[in-house]
Structures are given as structure tokens and as C-alpha cells.
Model the fold of this input.
Amino acid sequence: MDGTQAIILTIITASTPLLLAAIGELVVERSGVLNLGVEGMMVMGAVCGFATAYTTGSPTLGIFAGIMAGVGMAFIFAFMTQTLVSNQVATGLALTLLGLGLSGLIGESFVGLPGVKLTPISIPLLGDIPFIGRILFGQDILVYASLALVVATTYVLFRTRIGLIIRAVGDNHHSAHSLGYNVIMVRYACILFGGACAGLSGAYLSLAYTPQWIENMTAGRGWIALALVVFATWLPKRLAIGAYLFGTVWIMGLYVQAQGLGIPSQFLSSLPYLVTIIALVIISGNKTLTRVNTPACIGQSFVPDR
Amino acid sequence: MKKWLGFAAAVAMSFAVTSASAADKLKVGFIYVGPIGDHGWSYQHEQGRLAIDAALGDQVETSYIEKVDEGPDAERAIERLARQGANLIFTTSFGFMEPTLKVAKRFPDVKFEHATGYKRADNVSTYSSRFYEGRYIIGQIAAKMSKNGVAGYIGSFPIPEVVRGINSFMLGAQSVNPDFKLKIVWVNSWFDPGKEADAAKVLIGQGADIITQHTDSTAPLQIAGEQGVYGFGQASDMVAFAPNTQLTAIVDDWSSYYVNRTKAVLDGTWESTDTWGGINDKMVGMAPFTNMPDDIKAAAGKTTAQIVTGKLHPFQGPIFKQDGTEAAKEGETISDGELLGMNWYVKGIDDQLPQ
Done:
């Protein structure tokens, strides 16, 4: 395989899980909820996806199980924060702890087993085009799903009535409530969608990225996804740019190291964070627009008057 | 909320698991830094504990605490085992050194064994393994199997243990092909399967046709297997992850040491010692040599035998440092002290050692 092509393919696999998890969290935050449990939902998606694919031999069922695991975890969060009105920050952190512990327990008997790999799709002719064929038409289905999700989320959030309601709930839940919208139900739906995306992202890790289950295999990717949402000022398009920028700098850091140029590896490891933050801060330089895009009610609990 | 937090904490926190109980049995406790399911470092220590159960189960009762953080938590965990009446406690990570010594002071009648440390006391022994012996062997195999003459090496942190492994691998490779090249990527983590996999892909993309690693997950070998590139297992036999491309694996084997030390306590012959065992002491094992021609297999077997008899030492002179200065003359061997603090590369490695 050609060197440049290999690097581009690696960048795509490194960026996809970040984008998947972040796009879900973006919708959650747009509805005014801060769910810090992304890492926990992701790792549960990874273990359930792996376990199901390994047991049934079907990566497709694995993906489905990963999504359901994420939704299940998100439901716990939604019930706690929306129905029982608990503190969102504390509940989110607890969800991460729960996910990390529970996934270890579930995954105990799956450690050290080689998994079923989600094979990339192959399109005849198009996939055979030299160089770009493999990059554009030879990815696994979840890479295309992540990009489709960005487009769909942008469309739904900014071009449809549903999107308008979600943003209204996130910006001012009292007004949305007075207009007759069910704030709690809208938020439930968004939280579950976020969980599905995080679960899918976890399943991507354990089925496509490194097809195996290892405890704590998300290794902090949920937190990176959370940060990307904020720095992308809650805009799906910028989120995609941020995720791919992060992936690119991350892989280039490894590439530069292998060249033996003597740049300290610790510096290269921190570079993706620095570059992504700086780049996103620069593109979201317009303060007024940033304020408009920030969900005003983020992290606040809503209790309807009785 | 509280209920869930409590549940989360209960799941996330470590449990002490005790097997078979009888009042008059010798109690042996283990502290692990990772989950026993890491299929690497802690997993191999757990295999050692199980070996004690198998060999001395009628006289000994073992227990363990897993996922103990290095730091203040460790002291509490070790003390808990001591208070529960453990007679012998193995603390199996470098970062447990100070906590082990502290608890050992308070429990002078309990015997302690600390892995990979260098501080001892009357009731504290230390032990570690000469993994570099295995790295020399895989270096030789790598140079013989590589078509491009380039191997990719995934490192965790530039500490002496890892640098020593890289040097030993390179010396082994150079004994076959003096122009052998090594591309090194540091991932600054012991355990990040995704990043380790990325590093393997990048190295393969740059022409490395052998992948080896000093990190804890099975991911790099799995990538090598997928792309039809040869590789080596780390800490345990990982052949299941690359059935067609794992050449061999360096296997940590604590079983004989653990059984012997437990026997010593039973016999009353235990005393504080410092053990640094290699292949000869059965503390480092080589997984079966696979996926290579018979002559290379035979050569690898021969090198292993020479290391066992002491005829060959991976660090016997002449050895030159990267800057050209002589580290060991012809007929000399680099001392254990120098090996333990190794912070320089041998000649032929292009990478610059992060300081």
C-alpha cells in the first residue's frame, strides 16, 4: 500500500469515532442538556458491540447492540436528570464511572479474544480507481454513516421544525414550555439520540478500529468528543472539521516521530489538542455569532410549573 | 442520584476476592495495578497466583486486589491485605514501591515481595525479569524475516526498561544485518489500543515490515496480522490475534518464582532477596516460534539456548553508543547497574532519545 494512502486511511479511522460521539453530544447540548457521560456510554457500546458480534458472528448485530447499549446508558441519564431533576454534571460523571466499571464486568470473559472485524464495503470499478478509489469508496459503512450524520444533523437542526423546537428548548426552556412544547420529552429524545451515537462510536472502536475488547479501550476519546462540541460552537460543520483536524494532527504526530526527526514525542502528543483548539477558536472568532450558537439553557434543569 | 452514585462506585472500585478459606493455611495476597483482564501485565501475574493455587492449594490460601492505583490508594489496599492476616504479599507494579515499604514497616512479621523496584528491607524482597534477553532473540528473528530491513518499534515511555529493550532488539538485529533500521514511535501511554494501532499503521505505511511493541495491548500485533506484516507478542502469547504473522512472543512467567517464594515461607527459609531472572530462571519465556522457515526457527532456538547457558549475553562488547563512544570493550559485558539505568541508544538507531 502506498504510504500517503495508508496515512489518509489511518486519519479517517482515527477521526471517525470522535465525530460519531461528538455529533450525538452536539444534539444533546443543543437541547440544553450537558451529558458528561459520553465516555461511559461509548465504552458500554464498545463492550456490548464486541460481545454481540463475537457471540453471533455478525458485526451488524454488534453495531445494533452497541447502539442499544448507548441508548440504555443514556436512558439512565435522562431518567435521573429529566424526571428526577438531578444535577447534570454529577450525573454525567457518575455515568462515566458506571460505564467504565460495568463494561469491565460484562467484558471479563471477552478479553483476549480476536473479534469479528467490520469489513470495508467494496464497490466494483469505483473502488479500483488508483489511490482515491480505496479512500473514497472502500471505507467501512460507519465512516459513511458518520458523514451522513453530520449532513442530516445540520439539515434537521437548522432547516426543519423539529430542529427549531430542539434549539428553542435549549435556548429558553420556559418560553418553549409556554408555547406548549414538552421540554422534558424533547430532551429525553435528544439524550437518547446522543447515547445512540456514543454507543455507535464505541462499537466502531471494538469492531472496526481495533477489533477486540480491552477494558477502558476508549482511552479518553469520549472526553475529546465533548471538548470538540464546545470548541466547534455547537455547529455540525465545524465539528466535522475539528474532528478531522484532530485526527490528522494526531496521525501526523506519529508519522513525524517514525521519521526520526527528534521532535519530542510528548510535544507531538499534545499537538492535536493545541492545533484543534486554536483552529476552532479562530474560525469561531465572531463573538456575536458564538453567543447566538451557544445553547443558553445548557446544564440547567427544567421543572414545569404545576 | 445517590443510589446510582453508590452503585457506580461499587462497580468501579476494586473488590478483594478470596478463594477457599481455612484458618491454618498460609495466606498469600496480590496487588495488581491493572485489571486481570488486560491480557498483558496484570494477567500474567494472575497466572502466577493461579499457579500457587495449583501447586500448593492444600497449604495456601490466595487472594488479590486488582485495579489498584499507584499512589495513596495502594497503601490502603496493601494494609488491608496485611490486616486480613496475609503472611506473604506480592505488590506487582513499580509505583507500589514506597507504599509497600511503609506497610512493611508496620507489619514486620509479614513478608513482602515488590516487583521491578530497587528498595528492600528485612521483610521486603524485590524481583524483576530480564525481558531484554527475549528482545535480543526477536531482534535476530526480525532481521532474518524482514525484506526491507526496517522494523517498526512502538514504545510507551522512554524509561530505562524500554530503552534497554530497544537496544537489545537492535543489537540482535545487527548481529544478522549490520545495516538494519529501526523506526520508533512513542505513544506516551502503556495502554491506548487505538493509538497503538494507529502507530502500527503509520509504521507499516512507512515501509516497516516487522512490528514490535513495548506497550500493553494486543492492538499493534492485530494490525500487523491484518496487513500481513510479521510481528511479536508482548507479555503473553498473542498468537490468536495474528495467527499467520506472529513470529513468537516474549512471555512474562512469574509462576515458578511465585511458587518458590511461597514454598520458602512455608519452609521457613524465606529471606529478603533481590532477583532479576531471565530465560534461564524460567521468568522469561518464548512462545513457540511460528510462521518462519525451519532454519530461522533453529537459529532462534540456538540463540535461546546460548543465552540460557550464559554463552551469549545480549550486551556483550564491543558495543558503541549512538554518538560513537564505546560502551563496552570486546570481551566485556555491560554491568547490571548500567543496564538498570540505561538512558542511551546503541549505534545504528537514528531516533533521538526523548530526554
Observations:
- The longest strand of chain B covers residues 246-252.
